Automatic annotation (TrEMBL):
Residues 524-543, 581-606 are annotated as: Disordered. Residues 533-543 have a biased composition (Polar residues). Residues 1-26 form the signal peptide. It comes from the Bacteria. This is CBM-cenC domain-containing protein. It comes from Nonomuraea africana.
Length: 823
């Protein structure tokens, strides 16, 4: 894939930043029998014969190096070596117990004929398990690298060695998460046509699935160009001529597939469209209607041409045309828009626009789904389904009369048949009787997120996403018989990494963008294949925005609705839902004086208190500016609080007995302007004992965001744009500022104002603090605040450290490690 494709794909959202890098297929370097579980197999004799045996020590399988002769040297080397490249820094590390004397670890570089070209070494002593590290740059001519456990001349002693590992300075660990679930589905001729999302590095696919046999008949790559890359699609529709149309992002492209053919045709970009085609609806004569984000455009595609219909945006102030429904008899289209919700009827003959949204839903962000079936309009608004009768007034206008209001309903529902529409409410299949205006539950729990329904020989049939992949759900109303079966051989595609963090079990956890899923990586113990995950993707939760290890548990902040989960690594997956900040507050409020927060959506910040309390900082739901602070402790209900009006909470740290938080002047998606005019991001403190919230303004000129906070040696450190600030928690208004970089370009990349910076410490380098801003990984001297840039990687995001003190970051779908060597 070209660099331009990756660059443009990065415009998709703040959470998907593409990277102009060519993957290096290397992944982990694995020494065979690194832990001596197979005795000394794979370890060749070195120096004097004897002296090395395999044994168990302190409950571990080890290599015992026993040296009783001061004139002799003993050791074993991991030969043959691992592939290495001249000019690259490598690090060997091991765990060793030096019962007496010293224990030496060597990193050795060899040429094409096995000749020794150079080495690096380190020594350790002590009657306990110690970590020892040796690091060096491979000299010219290097072909392999190996590790040597050693006791040199003049040394006398006994050492027990375990877990000898080697890594490069920078390692591309590859794909961590995979997905095999559809985003959009349409039906034609007994087949489902399902869109499977890709990434900036991997094109999406269209799967053609035979519903009767539950088999994939074709998996077709959705093409693109370098200038207009395609990542995925939420829109699919079948036209009256039988053609299948797909609407994609981040390029607002329309594609057509003719059933029976083996290709998908790129029809070009929707007129004026910028990012998403959110929905498609068939019209008469083979045409299709569509709606876009972010210009709120309503368009048609007919006989090879795009035409904008009505004004742009179709509703004043709208950025989203999120949903469409078409009434072919009246030649009228219903449009659900956002970010401030509206519902209109557009007469395609006269151009008349009638507003239909009931006043009670005006505070919602958007109308997320529309269906015209059985002579009724079904409008889905934040899990509430309205059944609306559309009535024509005497003056030719139209109004909506609500037949039914059904809460906690999944997005999709069936076409009407025999006077009923079928839907899933609270996980249970229900029927809605159009004439009686009544709802009836069955005993059936489909157990999947259905992306589309059709009728096949009188049987309700749905296709959708489940924890184990794509499933087909069937239900026969006449008999009550039902089934749910996995569809085999659906496309399996990488998922972009959205968040990463170290778990209490020492593993690195990654959360998938958009399609969800969780990856788990065991540091330095991965395989050499970086095209697929080392471990199967964990399913059961949606997009993870943040991760925290605290008191032996892994906490996950999950989008949408800012859900807080906890996971015990010794227990089963999926994790336990603890709190939902999206259910708190009122949609009518935005932290105005005397009022509470709006419902929250994106949990970008997590921190833990010494008493086990978990704090979560969030960005609100679409169209709102005021984020919030959630306070939760096991055994309590939890609560969500306003802290800084009109600003999101994007960083948290506990220091000096108080919680400190950093804000962003960027609110949720859909606010206009993007940044609150004239506002300055700020620091605040929260006192757990009293509940008091105090702002601590920063001595900076209108900073856009405080994206990182951490406690260092009893002080609070933070990042605001390119500036580092520090303070004593006991005197939080005495703030010292050090300029590190120019501020990131938040206008061009507004997503950075939610999650740009990270600060952290690693035990093996107590003299420095490590961090990232923009595309740079750096370290800062704790005493002098002197800055050293370690790595510049366009498009990199996130930073965490493993138990060895090595750093991890992500570029789109790939996880990378940077090995830290203390200066």
């Amino acid at each position: 894939m070209t660099p331009l494709r990756r660059l443009l794909a990065g415009a998709l959202s703040a959470t998907l930043l593409a990277v102009p890098l060519t993957p290096a297929h290397a992944a982990d370097l694995r020494i065979a029998n690194a832990g001596f579980d197979e005795g000394l197999t794979g370890w060749s004799g070195s120096h004097s014969p004897g002296g090395v045996t395999a044994t168990v020590w302190e409950g571990r399988t080890t290599a015992r190096v026993g040296d009783t002769e001061p004139a002799q040297a003993y050791g074993r080397e991991s030969l043959p070596g691992l592939p290495a490249t001249a000019g690259t820094r490598y690090t060997a590390r091991a765990t060793v117990w030096a019962e007496s004397g010293a224990a030496d670890l060597y990193l050795r570089f060899r040429g094409s004929s096995g000749q020794l070209l150079g080495s690096a070494s380190a020594s350790v002593s002590g009657r306990r398990w110690n970590d020892v590290t040796a690091s060096g740059i491979a000299p010219a001519g290097t072909m392999t690298v190996s590790a040597l456990i050693y006791s040199g001349v003049a040394n006398v002693g006994t050492a027990y060695w375990d877990e000898v590992l080697i890594t490069k300075e920078v390692t591309d660990l590859g794909v961590q998460i995979e997905s095999s679930v559809p985003n959009a589905t349409t039906f034609a001729g007994g087949r489902a046509y399902a869109v499977y999302t890709g990434t900036a590095d991997t094109n999406p696919r269209l799967a053609v699935i035979d519903l009767a046999t539950e088999t994939v008949q074709a998996s077709i790559v959705i093409p693109d160009t370098a200038g207009t890359p395609t990542v995925g699609g939420w829109a699919a529709a079948t036209a009256t001529d039988g053609s299948v149309y797909l609407g994609t992002y981040p390029n607002s492209k329309l594609y057509r597939h003719v059933p029976g053919q083996t290709t998908v045709t790129d029809l070009g970009r929707a007129e004026g469209g910028y990012s998403f085609i959110w929905d498609l609806e068939p019209g008469a004569g083979g045409k299709v209607y569509g709606g876009t984000y972010n210009d709120g455009r309503y368009f048609t595609y007919d006989r090879g041409a795009f035409t904008t219909i009505g004004q742009v945006p179709i509703v004043a102030g709208a950025e989203y045309v999120r949903s469409l429904a078409h009434d072919p008899a009246a030649n009228a289209t219903y449009l659900g828009t956002g970010t401030n919700a509206s519902l209109v009827r557009f007469d395609n003959v006269t151009g008349r626009v009638d507003s239909l949204l009931p006043a009670a839903y005006a505070h919602n962000s958007m109308v997320g789904g529309l269906t015209w079936t059985g002579g009724r309009l079904f409008a889905w608004i934040d899990r509430t389904l309205l059944v609306l009768e559309i009535v024509r007034n005497t003056d030719g206008s139209h109004r909506a009369v609500t037949d039914a209001t059904i809460t906690d309903v999944d997005l999709h529902h069936s076409p009407a048949r025999d006077g009923k529409v079928w839907l899933v409410k609270e996980g249970v299949l229900h029927s809605y009787d159009l004439a009686a205006r009544s709802l009836q539950a069955t005993a059936v729990r489909p157990g999947l997120d259905i992306t589309g329904y059709t009728w096949l020989n009188g049987t309700l049939t749905g296709l959708g996403a489940a924890e184990d992949g794509t499933r087909i759900f069937t239900y026969a109303p006449a008999t009550g018989q039902w089934s749910s079966r996995v569809v085999r051989d659906t496309p399996v595609l990488p998922a972009a990494i959205n968040a990463l963090g170290a778990g209490p079990d020492g593993r690195i956890y990654t959360g998938g963008y958009l399609t969800g899923g969780t990856g788990v990586y065991d540091p330095l113990r991965g395989d050499a294949d970086d095209s697929t995950p080392d471990t199967p993707t964990l399913t059961g939760i949606s997009q993870t925005d943040s991760l925290l290890s605290h008191d032996g548990r892994l906490y996950l902040g999950v989008y949408p609705s800012a859900k807080l989960y906890s996971h015990d690594p010794a227990g089963p997956w999926p994790p336990t839902l603890r709190y939902t900040a999206g259910a708190a507050g009122s949609k009518a409020d935005d932290c105005e004086p005397g009022k509470g927060p709006p419902p929250q959506d994106r949990p970008y910040a997590l921190a833990g208190g010494p008493d086990g309390t978990i704090y979560m900082g969030t960005v609100p739901k679409y169209g709102k500016r005021s984020g919030a602070l959630t306070v939760w402790k096991e055994g309590t209900a939890g609560r969500t609080l306003c802290v800084v009006r009109d600003q999101a909470v994007v960083s948290l740290a506990f220091a000096g007995g108080k919680l400190f938080g950093g804000t962003s002047t960027r609110g949720a998606l859909g606010v206009n302007p993007v940044y609150a005019p004239g506002a300055s991001a700020t620091l605040f403190s929260y006192d757990p004992a009293t509940g008091e919230v105090r702002p601590h303004p920063l001595p900076l000129t209108e900073p856009k965001a405080v994206t990182a906070l951490t406690e260092v040696d009893g002080r609070l450190w933070g990042l605001a744009g390119g500036s580092l600030f520090t303070l004593d928690p006991a005197r939080p208004d005495a703030i010292t500022v050090t300029r590190l970089f120019a501020d990131p370009d938040y206008a061009a990349r507004p997503g950075l104002a939610w999650r740009d910076g990270v600060l952290l410490t690693v035990d093996k380098d107590p003299g420095h603090v490590y961090g990232t801003v923009g595309d740079q990984i750096f370290r800062i001297n704790r005493s002098t605040k002197a800055l050293t840039v370690l790595l510049t990687v366009p498009g990199m995001e996130g930073l965490t450290a493993d138990r060895f003190g090595d750093l991890y970051y992500k570029t789109n779908e790939r996880l990378h490690r940077h090995t830290v060597t203390a200066p």
